[in-house]
Structures are given as structure tokens and as C-alpha cells.
Amino acid sequence: MKTKSLLTAVGIAASLSFIPASNATIVDIETSLGTIQVNLFDESTPKTVANFLAYVEDDSYINTVIHRSVDGFVVQGGGFTFNGEALQAIETKGTVDNEPVWSNQAGTIAMAKLSGDPDSATSQWFFNVANNSANLDNQNDGFTAFGQVVSGMEVVEAINNLDDCSETPMVNYDTSDCSVVPGQENFVSIVSVTIVDDATNTEDSVQKVPSTKTSVPTPTPGGDSSSSGGTMSFALLGLLGLARLFRK
After folding, report:
1. Do the Cβ atoms of 186 and 175 come closer than 8 Å?
2. What's the rounded Cα separation, in Å, for the pair 145 and 91?
3. What is the distance between the alpha carbons of residues 3 and 108, in angstroms, rounded to a whole number?
């Protein structure tokens, strides 16, 4: 993963609001369990897509891990690498304006953000495993769904079905092992994110559902997710406190 200087990162963050709607709308997210192809909503959520592609273009997502999976809810990544002992947060570029146009239906990809701050999304994203519109279209002024899985949803579901430690999905690793430091091979990792179609607007080919957002927020789905799974002795649990949908 390329490391940028603070000055460069600040410059990119400051310029995001001036990036036009990207024409690179279909990407392959290759994970260690298979490839997920996503059609990005470049026309209707342009700032969010531009933000996501900025991380793609500088290889920030390569070797990151899927750090959260909640059964029948979400699969979340884009925030951490594993250094052999603990999860380590990647360098972020700055926040992006919330664009809650589309509903958080099953198969959509959306941005994670801080609780109580609608415009706080940076690098982290999540796949909706189920129809989460009742909660996530309303909560925190709505979560921005900025793309739709067009192939590879079975990979998302396979990740969601893995055993986990403190909500981190683990390969060949179960809760009885959670006090032992795992190896890199035990994490679901992002191998690459590749643009495969730069058509002017591929968004129109996807059936999208408008957000059900209302003026009244709903309770946090699933309650306090920090209580599930086991504990890891290498400070994973503490790091995951920063890695929720709300990045607390």
C-alpha cells in the first residue's frame, strides 16, 4: 500500500469536492474468498464515488481486511490492515458529504461514518447483506448507498457466514482460538480493486430503490455489537471500537 505524505493527503481531501462525477463506474473488488463486482452510482452519488475511487487509485484498499461481519446485517471493510499483531488503521483523506439518495437494500455498498455526524465518512464501506432500509435509510441522516453488487453476492454471503472474533470474520479460525494471534491467512483480505468498465453511465442499468429516509431516526440496529464473538489478545477488540458503522 502506498504511503502519502500528510501534505498530499490534505491536498487530496481538499480537492474531493471539486472532482466531477467519475466515468469509472464498475469495479471488481477481489477478496481472498472471491471477487465482488460492483456498479457504482457515479451520476447520483458523485462525491461518494469520487472519494471511493481516490482510495482505489492510490492502492489504499490493497491488503486491507474485512474487519466486521454481523450475521444477516453487514460486511464491513476499507479501514484496517493487519501488521502481524494487531489491526492498524489506514491513512484517511478527509470526510465526504453525505448523499443519502438510494435505499440500503441487500447487495448495496454504503459508507460508514461517525455516530451523530452525517458528513463524516472517510475510507470505510460496508455491504448490506439484507434489506436494512428501515434502519439505515433513516439513522444518522441516512447512510449513503453508492453502488450495487452485480455479481459475487455469494462471496459477500460467504464472508458473512464465517466464524468471527469480536465481529471480525476469520477463515479456519473459531471462537476457541480468539485469544491467540491469528495469521494473515486467517483474515479475509482485499487483494485488489480494479476498474473494469469506464462507460459514461452504467448506473442506469441497475434497478435502484429510492431511500425511505424520513425526518425521524430509528434505533441502532443490533444493539451494542461489541458483545459478540470472543476476545483477541492483540488489541483487536479495542481497535474495533473505532470500526463500527459509526466508527466510534
Report:
1. no
2. 23
3. 29
